[in-house]
Structures
1.
Amino acid sequence: MKAQEILNGMTLKEKIYQLQQVTTLTFSTTDSRLDIITGPNSTLALDKDYIYETGTALNLIGAEIMMDVQANYLKNSKQKLPLIFMQDVIHGHRTLYPINLGVAASFDRELAHDLAAMAAKEASLDGVSVAFAPMVDLVRDPRWGRVMESSGEDPYLNGEMAAATVKGFQGDMGKYNVAACVKHYAAYGGAEAGRDYNTVDMSERTLRQYYLPPYKAAVDAGVKMVMTAFNIVDGVPAVGNKWLVKDILRDEWGFDGVVISDYSAFEEMINHGTCENKKECAYRAMEATADIEMMSSCYASHLEELVREGKITEEQIDNAVYRILKLKEDLGVFDSPYRSVDPDEAKRVQVCPEHRALARYGAENSAVLLKNNGILPLDKNVKSVALIGPNANTGEIHGSWFCGGKASETITVLEGFKNIIGDRVKYAKGCNIEYNSTDESMIDEAVKLASECEAVVLCLGEHQEYSGEGNCRSNIEIPEVQYKLLERVLEVNKNVAVALFAGRPLAMSRLDEMAPAILDMWMPGTEGGNACANLIFGNAVPSGKITMTFPRALGQVPIYYNHYNTGRPKAEEDDFNRVRFTSSYLDIANSPLYPFGYGLSYTTFDYSDYKLSANTLKRGEKLTASVKVKNTGSYKGKEAVQLYIRDVFGSVSRPMKELKGFEKIELDIGEEKAVEFTITEEMLKFWTREMKFEAEKGKFEVFIGKDSTCKPFAEFELVD
Ligand code: BGC
């Protein structure tokens, strides 16, 4: 049956219940844990005669549960329109790959695509139809716990990763694909002070220029669903923000898919102080064209009344229901309610060796070598390595938002090392991971071990649950006890590398000063330990580059590369000098510790032969910018070559530079490749003084390089 036909046969109340989302376990015959807390009998106060007409369910893990729930649901439902199951498949389903901030650091679109496709396959075998991903919130504040889910601070890169991920999840919407749901629309990453759920307040120009493009890229890539954010945008909560959802997302961008709220965000409009009661929440959300209400029940409780009062039309409700039914139709559940669920196949496929291999490859390509005085890679013939630190012997490095992933299936760094150097690795914990731990009692043992071994690898950083939703930090340094451990180890052994595990950029000037080498593994997923070991021993060569600026100190935050010049810029050569009355600090440089796009390798790359095909660009035509990149070191390696453009003068101030292209290339020792970028008028468009999205005539600078500190090598003029 087709969506429209089904819709024609539904009563108003049945339609309204299609808009409701509850947890999967609400319908379980074997497990009703959540039913007691959030189910129909408690806070949601749903009509028990209609609960089996609910349209969608969230948070599903496991094929058997899905089959039980769907069967029970269809048995009890009057309309028998199958449920669809939605799940937070953030960085993998059962096989976890690195957190998304890590995947972005790979600068590898194909990798982002393939990892999402793998997650989709595992999830679909468990009966999941929709992944609540990609999360594409642009972010400039590492205190925010959810930076781990994001691609970082750049609109273009976030958009590229968003599109690749959407395509990976959705493919051709075949058996092993799931619908993607881009989130959190919009600007959730702009939370003030990096505190989750906090106020977001920015100009429309900033919103459109920096924050909206990644969501738009997902829409352009065909994403089936959009999730609204918890926050206010210009004073109005996103889910009830007609301007944001109806006017921009639907009317300007042409999105005709499903819009879902975030968890209980309808009702939170009361806390925001923009709605007095649930009825008003329902009105505002419907006015904004939000379709699915996740885990509150304003629609179910009040839409009928609003229709009776003439405040909401049945047509508005029909439109929302149609979009949901259309999604069900596209997913094929009317013909095949169990879709691709398959418990046996799930067991074979999930965390299978091929998926582990891809996750490992992902982790190796996401890791960023931040510093290396030459001690890395370690020689595999090393006599002994002291592996020390709170992140060395734990599976809890796969990252927050782990869906069905398990720490028990995650390769620890110690296991990874054993896989390469056997019992020549010796382990001591050194200290605990808690951010407030002051216990130094384990340090002596670790120092003794360090003094007995040829080399030391210290696994420092954060616990995986120090980032993720609701996990924000006011201090983003490693704890004092970890510095103490490093300091004491360095007293007895200088051959020390730090493997850092963190869900965010850390403020790490002090660590950078102390540690001879630092490899940032982020939170690397199920195969994290093997990936780390491969990188440390040179079986894999680091090629990741950071997509969020690392500050020297938290006081510099927000710090990002694509900033404006200001009227009193401080000259770069004066960065470390005090120049009063320039835009600067008394006590710290303006520059970050590590800039956007930065990352080292075990090999070296030389850039030469920078060329721009012409010095004028006529509207509608193209230019080519190119460079030759040569591997001049002694390892085969990969390099993310980056193109930046600066619009020198505009009707409004323009960023110092903006990433406009990147290409990840692989080069053998001594090999040279030409990398070419096309420059078009489209790439030069921005929100002008009149708030038109246009490219203005005038001068542009072109930069190609290894990171965002590269210098311009040519200029061109945009002419009519
Ligand atoms: C998060 C979303 C997530 C949803 C469902 C919310 O708390 O903000 O990102 O998709 O829960 O689990």
Note: The first strand starts at residue 20 and ends at 23.
2.
Amino acid sequence: MKEITNNLNEKIYYIVVWIVIAIMISGLFIDNPRFGEFGVVYIAHLILVFILSICLLLYPKNGTAVLRLTIIIVASVYFYTLFLFYPETSSTFVFLCFLPALSILYFDSKLFYFSLFLNGISIIIIFGYIVLTDGLQYPFIEEDLIGNFFNFVASQIIVYFIFYLTNGRIKKLQIYYEQIQHSERLKTTGQLAAAVAHEIRNPLTVVKGFLQVYEKDSSFSHIQKGHFTLMIDELNTAEEVISQFLSVAKPDKENVTENVDVKLVLRSVTDLLHSYGLLHDNRIELNVTEDCMISANTIEFKQLLINLIKNAIEASHFGDPVFVTAGREKDFVVIQVIDYGRGMSEAEVAFLGTPFYSLKSKGTGLGMMICFNIVEKFNGTIDFQSSIGRGTTVMIRIPAS
Ligand code: ADP
Ligand code: MG
């Protein structure tokens, strides 16, 4: 839990927890009507205080979901125990009303709903018990059962409302934080990539220049010259890759933006990748519902699609199709690349775009980084829906022109 690992927050957490523990302990000894008896009730109370204190103190070092659940359950049992075994202390009813608020502190929505549900069930049982036992010990509830019940319901609604607002705000902040982190990562990698690519291009040019000279030199045999031509070809390919890479890493002013027909580009890209897909018997099925135009750089747009479709093919099982669809949604062109392959976990999806992140033996781990850069350049968004073993849907939205 990030909120508590922060040093200052951790300090505040411990101060609050120690105060809570002190209050719980004083409840055990100061003016406690069961203190003298030292019976089962008192021992149960003592044990609950002990367990709850330990859990609360352990939490910052070991903030697992299991521990959170344990804290909520133990706290519920604790407060209901107080209510049942100290009926003369009527204020414990207030704690019962606000029990689910405890889980709001842990920013765990599942836990909150669980706690709300648990509290609802428990209070119904408690009210049933009071009615059945004629409310002897709880005159303050029995005298206005309905009113008390409504108050309880109202308190749950208030707690829910607080949770709803807090949770919404925190989620927004979290998304914002992730976006900042992501663009920061892209910026650094972009600069790094540009520097590396630039450094590689210079020696390549020198080597290519000499090979071009040797290619024309009559002192080399025919076979040797053939080898030189091959080498030059390979160097040209390498140069091209680097240029593309540089164009993405370093926003190039020469990059012309034009009106691009999405349908045409998609068709040319899927034709290009058709034979690649056939290697594993993966058909690429294209479905463009409307004519869509975007303003973009065609080469970059192709690069984006090639990377995504290639990944989809590489993730697919033998014989499965890869679907590519495009259509309009208000002012956006939406393109989806859908595969039914290996899929990714949430953690894997979060890693996408990190340079050199690849799970493939021969992967470069640069494709997604390039895609993110291009989409950002087009003022678009890219989203992934993926589940392990079921496949992945990549959705790109680019403003239509
Ligand atoms: P590379 O393809 O060279 O590995 P990428 O940046 O294109 O690098 O992709 C990074 C990683 O993201 C891949 O290695 C793969 O594990 C994962 N990935 C990307 N697209 C998909 C997909 N459609 N299905 C499953 N995994 C994917
Ligand atoms: Mg790839």
Note: The first strand starts at residue 258 and ends at 261.
